[in-house]
Amino acid sequence: MSPKKRKVARKKDSRPPSVFLCHSSKDKAFVRRLASDLSVVGVTPWFDEWELTPGDSLHSVIGHAVARAAYLSVVISPDSVGSSWCKVELNSALARELQLGRTFVLPIIYRRAKLPTFLLDKVYVDFSRGLVKKWVNEIRRRPSHRAGSLHALR
Predict the structure, then answer these.
(1) Which residues is 107 bridged to in the sheet?
(2) Kind plus residue range of the DSSP H or E element containing 97
């Protein structure tokens, strides 16, 4: 299914996205593959290339998507750590996690980078070790309302 067809199908579906993918545009190829892998196993990713259309308000559309997501996965790389957009999305997600009282932010390491201070106590998934499919299956098994840890995936 092409991204355009996915987008059309998702617009008709009122269910919230399962995982918002926070990333730097410089990591787009990796995130595109991740979004596709998630879709194949039945997890609905919110991926900007599939969701944003010309004229959209970035703050409004992204803010709404983060508020509706079951989880936010931040793709950590040297580029995302330095991205002001990623910082805004991540700050919003951490506030949402406090509001929900459960795990909401799921950090994933794509390329080694110094973790932001507020993520140091988070368990993360290290994609550089080839655990993409295991992580995708873990997300698929998690109900959106249940907290949990990814310790086994480090």
Answers:
(1) 74
(2) helix 84-100
42: left (phi over 0), alpha (psi -120 to 50) or beta: left
Q: Residue 54 is part of a domain; what is its CATH number?
A: 3.40.50.10140
Residue type, 59: H
pLDDT tens for 119-145 read 888 888 887 766 566 666 666 666 553
**pLDDT tens track for 29-70:** 999 999 998 888 788 999 999 999 999 999 999 999 999 999
Q: Is residue 6 part of a domain?
A: no
Domain boundaries, position 56? 16-153
* pTM of the complete model: 0.75
Q: Strand order in 19-22's β-sheet?
A: 45-46, 19-22, 71-76, 105-109, 125-126
DSSP E strands: which ranges in 33-117?
45-46, 71-76, 105-109
On whether residue 1 sits in a domain, the answer given is no
- Total tally of structural domains belonging to the chain: 1
